[in-house]
Amino acid sequence: MVNQWIETAHDRGASDIHFEPLDKDDRLRVRMRVDGELRGVETVNDGRKVIARLKVMAGLDVNERGVPLDGRIKFSASGGGRGGLDLRLSTTPCMGGEKAVLRLIDSSRLGMSLEDLGYTKRMLDLYRPHTLAPYGLLLHVGPTGSGKTTSLYAVLTSLNRTEINIQTVEDPVEYDVAGITQTQVSHDLGLTFPRVLRALLRQDPNVILVGEIRDPETAEIALEASMTGHLVLSTLHANEAVGALIRLLDMGMTPYSIAYALRCVVAQRFARRLCEQCRKKVTPPEALARLIGPGRAIYTGEGCKACQRTGFSGRIPLYEYMPMSDALKKAAYGETTPDALQAVAARSGMITMFEDGLEKASAGLTSIEEVLRLTKGLRTSPRSTAHRRPTTSATASSSGAAPRPSGTGSAPAARPAPPRQTGPQARPTSQSDVIPGVRPAPARPGAPRPPRPPGVR
Hints:
globular; 15 strands
């Protein structure tokens, strides 16, 4: 019965199987997450036997029921051409018994390139140069199961050559790759992220993958490694790209180390892919057309037998790209807010998740409703995107030149500089004059004070 559920989940393209006790009568509910949504399968009796069977397959102690357990299963699927499956088991004690979740690791995605994973040409042209840099930190953020590790392994696969020493520290190791030295964290043996990472730095690596930055110590070592001639790839749990800066600052990392080490941040989430059998082109309503722009095509799924009447089949990732521009580095030094950082990033070459989703919705890969659902509540939501300022260069911002309006062929004349103020209302130019919402950083102890303008005591 367990084998049949695993094979059914594999055939349906499920990412997880949930086994949940319903009551003390040993009934068990089985659900599968397909295209990001949980779907009921069936309810069975003898739930404890099912959980025990899963533990045996993962090599876990069946008598250990009071603590969470994690294991790994190599499953050989029946039927021609399907090969083996890599499963991760997690059990947790709960009311009524134990809950177990099986995660299906799709090893077929290992050999995929960034193009295969849904990166658009525009984003690749901006992101790929960072992956070829000799040093620096590249961060991928997003919720659990959003494909962060898969994206980073696509980068590692492209760099996997004889002349490059690649080493990883992960918990757990999701993909086994020939030519890459991979180390799995084991808290029972004292192999923590910081300890293994320090050991890797003594083995002459060119590229290091840190599975996840979870604590300040790991963050500090990763930043130091990226500043001493290593390209470091890692993941972080944040809802959006600008959230990575907030998380690092909250961990106690200095603005200097973040500004010097971090090259870019990529946020990602999965959207449901439209079924190719029943999708059709439709005319957007007037209100939606004003939001996405006139003349833009959108598609919808009518629902058919192939997609089980849902209109969707499979998933496609949506990405958000935020480069660590000079303006954003300056903003990191100030006592600022997430909204202020987002405003700076939006003017510094950022590609928002809504923009990436809109491009894929126009190509018929997903629906505009799905894009709006995933970006709702983000600082890069359509409402924020529609009101953001056009991109300006650092020179234009500092010189006071007016930004170029979108859609014009030539730049307008420079805005005249305001008259110099004297007297009690005069104040020196500071970082807050250049970057809205950013307060000037306090002066270092012992640093000389700037001269006061005339008339100011």
